[in-house]
Amino acid sequence: MLAPVILAASRSDKMRRFISAAPGTKQVVDRFIAGETVDHVVPVIEDAAAKGLEVTLDVVGEDITTPEQAGDARDAYLELIERLKGLGLGTKAEMSVKLSMFGQSLDGGHELALANVRPVVEAAAAIGTTVTLDAEDHTTLDSMFAIHEELRKDFPQTGCVIQAYLFRTEDDARRLAAAGSRVRIVKGAYKEPASVAYLDKAEIDKAYVRILRILMEGEGYPMIGSHDPRLIAIAQELGRRAGRKLDEYEFQMLYGIRSEEHLRLAAEGHRMRVYTAYGTDWYGYFMRRLAEKPANLLFFGRSILTKG
Asked: Is 118 helix (H, G, I), strand (E, B) or coil?
């Protein structure tokens, strides 16, 4: 399987330098990354809103090694929120954050990440939107869920992400599928050992459906993160069986992937949110997109052979 190799490369400085310098890289990165600055991403938000779509915004960057860098990440989100304030888009534009950006892996990282993310969640609430805490590798999840629980005391709309390939996730879903919760379910895109995660695609898909059923039959608000047509159809059926209206759950897909499907679901009356990443530190995010789907890797392979 290529995915583990690609995920390992996502942590390699040597591969980072090679891929960053490859002549076709920018063409592919531009497919998945909406730009490098807030100025680049604002037109993307406005265009999505005009098409009946919503967005969740991710300022990319995970390799934080100092508290000062974690503070810079916090400030980048606060800058984004300040710009969104004048757009009047409300819930059309929420934010997704990785706690690794806020210092979670540093000494005292749990407290540092909570202290850095709280003002972002508070500022988002002040302009009528919210924040979702992205899931990362399994070693970070207990801290993420604890921070999520703490934030929800004051900001109950704060969302979180669960990953279908982890054995623990069905139990997490049962705990989270309560009134007022917002939970995004994804398959998972980190390299995990067989002791904690399903590695077979068919088993991951089965787990995804089991977990999705738990969320749909619960009292919270499910957010279905998938581009898989079969899983999207299953989600629609589970929503119907659970008696959910179309605005009682939403679909989420990545910027640059299956864009026509974004529009189709929105035209059917579904809430459709586009996960839109931007920023200069794009490498880790980009490599996980390649690992998720062989077609992305083939597209990239063709592009890096293009000169000029």
From this structure: helix
Q: Smallest Cα–Cα separation from 187: which of 160, 174, 172, 206?
A: 206
Q: Tell me, what DSSP letter sits at residue 224? A: E
E strands along the chain, which residues?
54-59, 93-97, 131-133, 159-163, 182-186, 221-225, 250-254, 271-278
Q: Which residues are CB-neighbours of 299 under 8 A, at least 6 positions away?
A: 28, 31
Residue type (1 letter), 128: G
Identified catalytic residue from 58, 134, 172, 205: 134
Is residue 13 flagged as an active site residue?
no
Q: Is 184 a catalytic residue?
A: yes
Burial per residue of 75-97, b for 16 or more beta-carbon CB atoms within 10 angstroms, e otherwise: ebbeebbeebeeeebeebbbbbb
How far apart (Å, rounded) are the C-alpha atoms in residues 101 and 70?
A: 6
As a whole number of Å, the CA-based R_g of the chain is: 18
Q: Of 123, 136, 34, nearest to 76 (Cα)?
A: 123
Residue 209, pLDDT above cutoff 70: yes
Q: Which of 184, 213, 288, 289 does the annotation list as catalytic?
A: 184
Q: Which two tokens stand for residue 75?
A: 């400030």
The pTM for the full model equals: 0.87
**How much is the pLDDT for 60?**
87
Q: Which residue has the higher pLDDT, 199 or 308?
A: 199
Task: Determine the pLDDT at residue 245.
Answer: 98
Distance CA 71, CA 86 (A): 24
**In 188-293, alpha helices (H):** 201-217, 229-241, 259-267, 283-292
